[in-house]
Amino acid sequence: MSLYAEATSCAQGEALRFRLLDGEGGPIAVEDVPSGRLVLRDTAAPGPAWTLKVGPDWPSSLYRAIYHEFSAYFVVRAAAPASPILVSIPFPTWEAYNRPGVPGEGLYQSEQPDRAVKVTFDRPGAGPQIEEWELGLLRWLGPAGYTVDYCSGLDLHGGLPLLSRYRLLVVNGHDEYWSWEMRDAAEEFARRGGNIAIFSGNTCWWQVRFEDDLRTMVCYRDAAADPLAATDPGRVTVEWPNEPVNRPENTLTGLSFRNGAGCWVDSRVMAQESYTARFTDHWVFEGTGLADGDTFGRGAIGYETDAADLEWVAGVPRASGRDGTPPSFVVLATADLSHWRRYGKGGAATMGVHRLGSGTVFNAGTINWGNTLHDPVLATITRNVLNRLSHPPPTPTWDPIGPTPHPTQPDPPAAAPPVVEGGAPAAVPPVVEGGAPAAVPPVVEGGAPAAAPPVVEGGPSTATPRVAEGRPPEVAPLAVKGGAPEAALHGPEEGTPDAAAPAADGGTSDVVGRPASAPAASPARAAAHLAPDSAVHLLADAAPGKAREGTPALAAHERDDGTSDGAGQGAESDGLHVTARGTEDGGSDGVCQGAGGGASHVAAHRTAGGRRRGGAVRALVCCENRLYAVCPDGTLAVRDVSGQNLPWQTIGETDALALAAPREAHGGPPAGLYGVAPDGTIRYRDPVEQPRPWRDVSRAPDGTIGLAAVDEGLFAVTAAGELWHLPIRRLDEHDWRSVGPAAGTAPPTPATPVTISAASVTPATPVTPAAGLTAMNGRLFAMAADRILIRTAERHEAPWNDLGPAAGCTALAATGGRLIGAGPDGLLRWRSL
Q: pLDDT tens, 437-491?
């Protein structure tokens, strides 16, 4: 007494016929699966079939016909879209798992010699697996306020006309079996601007073919057995990444089961697993309250997962792209599931998002996501994804792509140190409270100064550190209150220390970690220096943003997962620089180097909410797919241009107020970094990630505060509100010519609103000037009154037009069709044009 539907879907108002295998007839009920609502009771007459007439007012949904306690599932499609969201039901996967282990009737087990290679939909039994991976999300959507339309996975086979009526395709649960035509439709949908949300795992793993008007599914699982191997190898039914198909599924989904995991033996293991958040400033995490390193989604991971091949950069994961994951993929969360090899397949899980053409693809990377939406964090993430991808903003938005760099050097001294014999500067005695300078450390053989006595209230300390020939001094006690060592903080940090040591003033200095040479003791919640007992101490009342001169320091910054990346920086050029970068497993690689040698990672500090933040940025520019930034203290930092929250690397110093980089050289000066100094000198530097000297190459107009390179020329904006042009081949002539008003320039204090003439902006617009100039694709971009303005790079006066809000950005760069901005909140953002 069983039945099956002759199609997996029908439209509203159409009829759908069911086959009754016993022919006896009897009561039939039809239920809306997501809501559990009974929509029809009927009695089938004796005979082989029963026809359901779907009402035109039936909501698009997943339904099941119930006949003598047997069920047949089907979808009612919307005759006209009632929602921008289309949810696909994985009927091919349901059929693949129908009758597993039955010789000649089931596709499983996958290595079983007598498994079937073709299965038919003209049989009963296909439906949700016993775990009901798909039903959790379907039952959540309605009560959560979402009206959605449904389709069968088979409707995606040649389904571009269907998809083109929607903004968002939702792939849910366990959607493992896809045809070439299904992939083509989904990928073209995204390339044209449609979006895809994948709340699924093991997604699009096997290629299948359909025969008999989509009623037979073919999956040989073995290229040697598939007859198309010799004539049409791309259609051979094996895993998508494998020979001879070589079409990795992660070019669509962003993730792959090759890197994923499976827990098939003990489902209790799944209940213990959680994701670790890696980029909580991303819009996907908005409203969750999570910070990088927090865990979430316990129980959502499994029983199969997908993951990206990752590389770790100072504790931040990024997709390597070696296995086909698109370069735009942004890692949002990770889980190490290598121990699952005891329960099925060891691997990992990744949650992330990427661009595919003009569309966006989000992937949760796990099958069980929908069944854990009682978790408020998962529900919030799901809402964020559905809301944004089904109703894209009408104008481009500024999305965070990581922190800005944080300065690694203290404020410059008021006076330069005297030069001593041999060319090395003598140490400048620091000024202490009370007016007495601390003693100057002696210079020892080999050029390294002895450690300076600490700065104290009321005068210098009498502590004398031991000095070894040719080596940096041992770490001396530092600035104190009442005689106890005090940590120098780079900025406010959040966290609970593991232990506390008494301070002389009756307070405590909290032990928050150990130097790179010692085993990791606890997560570091702040930048702190080495204390004499080899522990790292922190005092909450140390002055933020200051490191006292003469102080060797260890900056132990917290990594995303709560461990210390140990990135250290001496407080002065010849202070001790200890770099102990965080590793993937939460440890430290213990790398140590001198402060003056090579590049070092720039710390991004946490806000009170626990999220990483950088500092202010004076200038930005993109060159050779890297982003360069100048901090207010003169630090020059670099990171890749990417949507990932990558760390910055310090590569030198500069006095540049603004940066520019030509797209390419044209036989004249080289393509690289051009910076304008406060005195108007233009300097050049090679765009490499190692220290390099700057050399003087030209002069800018007086009062230049912004610089851009485009169309074989430099444009400069001045504080007086002028825009100037110089052909880059004539750098040595300094023959700048005025080309009109400069929207987005900063006048001298006090700031005065400037009205740009009607010839320049249509219509005439009063603007409060602000600094910022960049160029891309033959156009100039500037900022004024928190707006982005744009004009062509004509070598004469041209109008500026409004492009939209600047989102508080105070420094601007451009590359690859995007604007990149940095603001005082310590976040780097980008937007498309």
A: 344 344 334 444 444 333 333 333 333 333 333 333 333 333 333 333 333 323 3
Rg (CA), the chain: 32
Question: Residue 444 and residue 427: Cα distance in Å, rounded?
Answer: 12
Cα of 237 vs its chain's centroid, Å: 34
574: left (phi over 0), alpha (psi -120 to 50) or beta: alpha
For residues 477, 482, 487, 492, the Cα torsion angle rounded to the nearest 10 degrees is: -170
Peptide bond into 763 cis (omega under 30): yes
Count Cβ atoms within 10 A of the Cβ of residue 578 and give its class: 0-12 exposed, 13-18 middle, 19 or more buried: buried
Scan for tokens 């089931």, then name that residue.
106
619-623 and 704-710 beta bridge pairing: unpaired
806 token code pair: 């600047």
In 592-644, which ranges are E strands? 600-602, 605-606, 612-613, 619-623, 626-630, 635-640
By the 10 Å C-beta count (0-12 exposed, 13-18 middle, 19+ buried), 720 is classed as middle
What would the DSSP string read from start to end of 165-225?
A: T-SEEEEEEE--EEEHHHHHHHHHHHHTT-EEEEEEESTT-EEEEEETTTTEEE--S-TTT
Q: Which residues pair with 821 in a beta bridge?
A: 812, 829
Torsion angles phi and psi, residue 698, rounded to 5? -170, -175
Q: Report the residue count for the chain.
A: 833
Among the listed residues 775, 811, 807, 779, the one whose alpha carbon sits nearest the alpha carbon of residue 637 = 811
pLDDT digits (tens, 9 = 90+) for 419-440: 333 444 334 334 333 443 344 3
CA-to-CA distance for 536 and 310, rounded, in angstroms? 31
pTM: 0.77
Would you call 678 helix, strand, or coil by DSSP? coil
